[in-house]
Amino acid sequence: MSKLSFEQFSILRLLLDIEGIGPSKLKNLLNHFRSFNKIISASTMQLIEVDGIERTLAQRISSSTKHLEETKNQLDKELNRLSKLKIKVLTIWDSSYPDLLKKIFDPPLILYYKGSLSDYDKYSIGIVGTRQPSNYGKTFAEKFSSELAGQSISIVSGMARGIDSIAHKAALKVSGRTIAVVGTGLDIVYPPENKKLFDEICEKGLVISEYKLGTKPDAQNFPKRNRIISGLSLGTLIIETGINGGAMQTASFALDQNREVFALPGNVGVRQSEGTNELIQKGEAKLVMKSEDILNELELKLKPIVGKNIPRPTAELNIFEEKILSTLSANPLHIDAIASQSAMSTSDCLVYLLSLEFKNLVKQLPGKMFCLA
Question: 3-class SS at 86?
């Protein structure tokens, strides 16, 4: 679990389930009482001394203690299920909580994630857009994502249909890292056709949610999700969106968080470009035509990472995978040469190369050529 003890986590969940308590008021309570236990043991009169806690809310907090054992029982069952699903829990008090996200106005206090956390995610770019992109939008979403991911930049998006899915897939295609922020519990894949994409991101990147298991894709979840996409990113690129599209909300969150916003210009009169063109016209987004425009704008922030080979997470290898890996370098090698140097049949070699590719250690190139990822 997280850095919090089971008791502390139980009280945190109990408090967040109280109507009228959100991250801001909970932080006020913690700043005042200095511990979770002292919050729930405080009297109504002591509670109303805290900024933002009026009498009715204070009474709700005081009376919530009778539900603590029930909350503990539910949490115990949930943690067992999370473990079986290989889902981990992170709180804002943990050292591994993403630094960029911690700096926004209302960061989620609890995150559920599947996949691997990485220190290099502080060099992330969000790419979002409409669920119904034009061919122009599809082309440039793939181009920007693959080129930025190729520079060891993590690509953050929302795994929605359209631009989001294209951005994730393009990053994975070049063996890059991608982060999906979803608006459901991590036991529910939405949209359902993205199940394969979800599994691949979990294997090679990270899927994040602030929602408990069982949370369905309700409409109100997605605007909240968008603040996490921008919050995890140094800057957010809007590819295509209508005036009232969800990507416009993400842009608004990024601006409020003092993060950069970039937008791809489009033809006047095309619905998918109305939002991006408006952002550019109002001076709220920087017009970009190629990935270098983003790299140049964020040059100082991205300098430690761009153009460098970032070490991948270590993976368990069998003896045959190790043998194949020892024959490879950054220079492409044909499958026949790899098989010969590894003293294996070509068919066996292909099986282990595929396994190494899934582990993000090997990259396949056209013509049955392979090199280190």
Answer: coil
